[in-house]
Write a structure and sequence with these properties.
43% of the residues lie in helices and 16% in strands. The chain has helices at residues 5-17, 57-70, 78-82, 85-98, 109-120, 135-143, 156-165, 188-197, 220-223, 253-262, 264-267, 274-289, 292-311, 330-342, 372-385, and strands at residues 34-37, 40-44, 102-106, 126-130, 147-151, 171-176, 201-205, 233-237, 247-251, 322-328, 345-346, 348-350, 360-365. The model has no long low-confidence stretch (mean pLDDT 96). The radius of gyration is 21 Å and the shape is globular. The protein is built from 15 helices and 13 strands. By secondary structure, the chain is an alpha/beta fold.
Length: 392
Amino acid sequence: MRNNPEQLRAYLQSQQEQHLYRKPRLNESAQQPLMQIDGRQVLAFCSNDYLGLANHPGIVGALQCSAEKYGVGSGAAHLVNGHHIEHQRLEEALAEFTGRQRALLFSTGYMANLGVINALTEKGDVIFQDRLNHASLIDGGRLSDATMWRYRHNDIADLSRRMAKSEAENKLVVTDGVFSMDGDCAPLTELATLTQQHQGWLMVDDAHGFGVLGKHGAGLVEQEGLNSDQVPVLMATLGKAIGTAGAFVAGNDDLIEYLIQSARTYIFTTAMPPAVAAATHYSLKVIQEETWRREQLQSLIQRFKQGAAQLGLPIMPSDTPIQPLLVGGSDQAMRYSLQLLEQGILVTAIRPPTVPDGEARLRITITAGHSEVQIDQLLNALESLQISKPIE
């Protein structure tokens, strides 16, 4: 327990010595490839704005129009008097887009995951989580009264053994759709089949797949063709490919009604500003109409992957916008990140505890807003660093 100034200072010093210290950068521009950060222009490859919608003029206009009409704040929680017509319209649009009966808005993805997991589980239940799940999912399990078991990453056999050993009546399997630090996808079809065999429920956090994957952009669940019986609990965020803020959970009518009554992070949180809901509703229309954005994104991802392969860069296997370059040590990751910054390119160094010890990396993210010239600029900069595969 760190409960005095000396202990706090010792911790901070230790973080610096281990190259684990973090601090925010000051952004003075809109979210886009060329940004003004810490007083200089940089070419950013670390944004989750995968479709380049955060600065879309139509979405900005929808937010402005709604703010002029309805004001800024929602004023209260949804169950008091904060549930606005803009929220209702967005929830209905999200339900239709994901092929579910209903959807429910949350203020953030973190709050959605904490609220849903704790609402659906109690003492005596068992939660099975992929070891590489997002921190919000893991924290949701830790804060619940249920027992939590973590199975090896994307290892169906390991999960099957663990589920077979459990005598719990209620089982909840929880996984990311696209894993945020590795960029790979969960084997959702196999997970859904196994979970149904054990009479459990499958919850998918599709934060990094929603808007990007699937024929219509509805995410990995759509891409795998899974319905609400196979994936009863679908969660996704709105601050990544959608370009706005917040999150939602989609499912059948009973699930959503239950969460309205039981999810504390929904009940006791002020609703998102109505203008943000209006902007998000507009963004969903853009995603469905401007299909070229997903096509452009996939083309750029393939261009980067081919170039990285030619250079022999240790890029982890991923077909998503998340292209992690495995480095190894935190000191090396920081050094490479700073060397890229010297060339005007911003790529974040990801270090423990976000990733396991010895697996620090440069988390490169590609967006539809980038150009082929900018992809080539990044590849040229990476080539100059002479990065080799880390020693195992």
